[in-house]
Automatic annotation (TrEMBL):
GO terms for molecular function: glycosyltransferase activity. InterPro entries: Glyco_trans_4-like_N. This is Glycosyl transferase. It comes from Desulfovibrio subterraneus. It holds the Pfam family Glyco_trans_1_4. Keywords: Transferase.
Length: 353
């Protein structure tokens, strides 16, 4: 069975790693022939070139309905019998929907939806309706899809997976400091402001060891966050490291904060924390609660409540036994959301289609 995996992203973020994991598993499984289609210069194609049993199809970097891209996919459909087109981002969903409109029953379209925002009106939302199946990477996303008008029979839930073997376990820095880390693009949904305001609360709390916060990521709100830290007087405790490979920095964190305020899917950052061996503290967005059980494999605070986040941070910073409990349970949870389980669920879905 040929599976054409479409992703038009130009970066190597969480969604692209899901395509990589899925293609790797398909390439190793009997009966599947995966092809990754992405912009010619996309990092995803460079990583995919290392995989056995996986072909790559470089696409034009133009708009999603670029005729050159449609022509390249048409050759696979009409000459090689590729039937399943699986899109992994909003732009590739538009491309797959266009293919469906042009070639009808010759292709079966699957979309993976990674954010919990309602579908938009017009073409940007209706492109999903052309698919035979739409996968929400959390139950919250699936519920939102149905509420947005997607027929429930077409909606499936498959959580994103992670390969813990790619991550290094936490190491002892030996410097006596407590490092709170956060990983995420500097966009409104990630909640950087909540963490910065929590830092101001922490400065007024007693009994804490020396501590600092390190932020990994880049984006439009980078300078805004820096200004807020200065206004609240916490900039001396803050290191803003820009975009980095999180795997290189996670082992030097002591706590991982995930203060997302909306739109979250099946958080890869939470799973990265589990794989690394970090206690995780997260907001109570519904998708986050599908992963984290408060007091068991992480701590949960009410969304946007920076004072509550500060109290959670204080508990972990002063409670070694609690931190270890969260780490131990988190390690077990990571196995429940492995890349292997994710890929097996998609293989089963392809079979039913």
């Amino acid at each position: 069975m040929h599976i054409l995996l479409l992703d038009l992203g130009r970066e190597m973020r969480g969604g692209q790693w899901q395509v990589y994991y899925l293609a790797r598993a398909l390439g190793a499984a009997e009966g599947f022939e995966p092809i990754i289609a992405a912009p010619a210069q996309a990092p995803l194609l460079k990583h995919a070139a290392e995989l056995e049993g996986v072909r790559v199809l470089p696409l034009s970097g133009g708009r999603e309905w670029d005729p050159r891209n449609l022509h390249a996919i048409r050759k696979l459909v009409h000459r090689e019998g590729v039937r399943i087109l699986h899109s992994h981002c909003a732009k590739s969903a538009a491309l797959a929907a266009m293919c469906k409109k042009l070639w009808g029953d010759k292709v079966v379209v699957v979309h993976s939806r990674r954010v919990s925002y309602p579908l938009k009106t017009g073409w940007r939302g209706s492109k999903y309706l052309r698919a035979e199946a739409v996968v929400g990477v959390s139950q919250e996303i699936s519920n939102v899809l149905v509420a947005s008008g997607m027929p429930a029979v077409k909606v499936h839930t498959i959580h994103s997976g992670i390969d813990c073997a790619r991550y290094t376990r936490k190491r002892n820095r030996g410097d006596g400091r407590m490092v709170i880390g956060m990983v995420g693009a500097f966009t409104g949904q990630k909640g950087h402001e909540v963490l910065i305001r929590a830092m101001a609360e922490l400065q007024n709390m007693d009994g804490l060891p020396p501590w600092e916060v390190r932020l990994i990521g880049a984006g439009e709100l980078f300078n805004t966050v820096a200004v807020l830290a200065g206004q609240l007087g916490v900039d001396s405790r803050l290191a803003m490291l820009g975009w980095q490979d999180s795997r290189e920095f996670l082992p030097d964190f002591d706590i991982l904060a995930v203060p997302s305020v909306d739109g979250e899917g099946s958080s890869g950052t939470i799973k990265e924390g589990w794989c690394t061996g970090l206690p995780v503290i997260t907001s109570d967005l519904p998708s986050n609660l599908e992963l984290v059980q408060d007091g068991v494999n992480g701590l949960v605070f009410p969304n946007r409540d920076h004072e509550a986040l500060a109290r959670c941070l204080h508990r972990v910073m002063t409670g070694r036994a609690l931190a270890q409990t969260l780490v131990d349970a988190g390690h077990g949870s990571a196995t429940e959301f492995s890349d292997t389980r994710m890929a097996q669920a998609y293989m089963a879905l392809y079979g039913t289609l």
